[in-house]
Design a protein that fits this description.
Strand order of the largest sheet: 1-2
Shape: globular
Radius of gyration: 17 Å
Helix content: 25-40%
Distance between the termini: 32 Å
Strand content: 5-15%
Number of strands: 2
Largest sheet: 2 strands, parallel
Length: 155
Amino acid sequence: MRSPPTGLGAVHTGTQIEWSLLSRDVEESIVPAATATGLGVVPFFPLASGMLTGKYRKDEPYPEDSRLGFAKKAGAAGLARFATDENFAKVEAYTAFATENGHTVTELAIGWLLAQPSVTSVIAGATKPEQVAANVAAASWALSAAEADTVAALG
């Protein structure tokens, strides 16, 4: 870690970015820049509004009490950006990998982020106590570098 400059006031030590297995464009710009300057990365939306929890299925109605269910009722298209044919196919591949390794897709989504060298923590939201428990359990899967590379290649 580099020493903070003197006389400049606050020193930045990290950055929060949207980053998940379904939102990876930051890997081309922000993540390398943060890494090069010694900043930690704290991803938010690691479960892509629930897409990486297994609760949504292609061509099936969204649960009414879910984020995408609420968004559909409200006519909000913002969260629907995750519910694409391409993303549903990726989620199937990630789910298969997780299941083959004795884990859930939620555990994979968070574990994969935590396996990234620049990630210092992950911000995972929850609306129910069981989601908090699932998010905590997800941190227990320490993916190897090889596993993380395999997962990255799936998407």
